[in-house]
Every structure is written in structure tokens, then in C-alpha cells.
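Deliverable D2.4 — example input (C-alpha cells):
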């Protein structure tokens, strides 16, 4: 059995990110089998007991994740002239009335997890927790993202099969299989487990479908539900247990 960097082990165990682990090593907040370690690059066996100190645990426990119903015309996180960013909407006046947690819990910047383009709407997550981001958009992620796609004209079963079968390529890479269900004459329900830039719109373009509306309604088991457009709410830790 080979030894692995403590920072990598802590990241794999979803205790903290690698960068945070390196910071905690500097701060004297990591214990290997009960012994304090501070040297960067320290390695341990995967079976070893690795713990973080009280202040590091408190910091991890205070990390916040929110769910926003992103409206059309809002960019996720890349500033563009004339457009507002999603983070601009995370203010007290847009805090959903049904959320019992106080606005004051939000004390540090948030980062978007899984972008939606300016012409798309729906469920957008913003977090202070790198562990959440890794689970959803990391290279090994298999967390489902569900979309409702409306289009003009009609679609054939062969076009839908091309979406389902994973035979499409974007930027020279073959895409994974997608779950596709036709809801009515002009509406599809699509489930992806990857998230390349404008992926779903580009997939539809390839097979000749003209998208008129795209809305993300689910990430993993997190449902957009009745959250109104432009409103946000806190996501509790129990809701962030993605498989």
C-alpha cells in the first residue's frame, strides 16, 4: 500500500479541499493518527486516521451554499458589459420568504457551481465550499443535471436517439449518453451527467433542433421546485449529500 499526500486524502474524504488542507497544515490544524503535522507534502496511508483541528472544523461548518432561480438575462459568473452577474442577486431583498435561515449567515463571497448561459434560466448553485463544487462539476462527477428544453418545429425519434446514444462530439470529445424524454410536441426533458460550455444547446444545434427555452430544474436530488425567478434560499448540509 502506497502513501498519499494528506491534502489529497482529506479531499477524497470530503473533509476539505486540497488547498484548504495545505492551509490547515501551515496553521497546525491537522493531526495524523493523533500526532500534529505541519509539513507540506506529508504523506499517509489511506487507512490512517487524519483529523482537522477545532478551528478548521468550525470554518468548514460555517461554509454556505445557496440555490438561486436564475432569470434570463443574468450571466452566471463572467462579467459582460450591460449584464448583471448571478452573485448580484444574492441580497437580502431577494432572499426567499420561505427560508427560515437569517440573511446574516451570508458573510463571505460565493462562487458559481455549474454555469447557465445568459439565455438560460433555472437552478443555479453558488457556494463557499470547494467540496460541493468538486462533487457537482469535478472531472469524476456523475451528478445528474435535469433540464426542460422547449423548441420550435418538430423532432424525429432518430434525432432523440442521437442525443441518447452518446454519439455526438463537442470540441473533438465524444459526449456521454443523455437521458431524453419527449414531454409534448415541443418539449423535452433532458438529463446530463456532464456540463461542457453551452453543451445542451450545442447538442441540439448538431441534430437540427432550434431551442427556444432552456431551464435547469434539478441538480442531483436538489429540485428547483417553487422557488420564484430571481429568488434564492440557503441549501442545508443534509441536501448536499450527492452520490
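Example output (designed residues):
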Amino acid at each position: 500500500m502506497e502513501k498519499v499526500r494528506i491534502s489529497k486524502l482529506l479531499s477524497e474524504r470530503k473533509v476539505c479541499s486540497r488547498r484548504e488542507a495545505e492551509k490547515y497544515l501551515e496553521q497546525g490544524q491537522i493531526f495524523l493518527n493523533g500526532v500534529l503535522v505541519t509539513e507540506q507534502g506529508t504523506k499517509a496511508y489511506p487507512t490512517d486516521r487524519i483529523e482537522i483541528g477545532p478551528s478548521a472544523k468550525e470554518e468548514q461548518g460555517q461554509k454556505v451554499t445557496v440555490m438561486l432561480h436564475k432569470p434570463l438575462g443574468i450571466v452566471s459568473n463572467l462579467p459582460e458589459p450591460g449584464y448583471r452577474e448571478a452573485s448580484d442577486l444574492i441580497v437580502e431583498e431577494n432572499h426567499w420568504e420561505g427560508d427560515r435561515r437569517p440573511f446574516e449567515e451570508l458573510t463571505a463571497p460565493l462562487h458559481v457551481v455549474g454555469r447557465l448561459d445568459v439565455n438560460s434560466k433555472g437552478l443555479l448553485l453558488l457556494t463557499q465550499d470547494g467540496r460541493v463544487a468538486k462533487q457537482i462539476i469535478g472531472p469524476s462527477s456523475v451528478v445528474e443535471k435535469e433540464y426542460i428544453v422547449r423548441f420550435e418545429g418538430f423532432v424525429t425519434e432518430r434525432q432523440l436517439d442521437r442525443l441518447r446514444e452518446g454519439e455526438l462530439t463537442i470540441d473533438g470529445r465524444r459526449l456521454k449518453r443523455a437521458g431524453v424524454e419527449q414531454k409534448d410536441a415541443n418539449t423535452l426533458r433532458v438529463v446530463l451527467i456532464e456540463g461542457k460550455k453551452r453543451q445542451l444547446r450545442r447538442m441540439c444545434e448538431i441534430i437540427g433542433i432550434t431551442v427556444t427555452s432552456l431551464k435547469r430544474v434539478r441538480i442531483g436530488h436538489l429540485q428547483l421546485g417553487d422557488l420564484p425567478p430571481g429568488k434564492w434560499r440557503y441549501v442545508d448540509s443534509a441536501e448536499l449529500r450527492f452520490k
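The chain has a mean pLDDT of 90.
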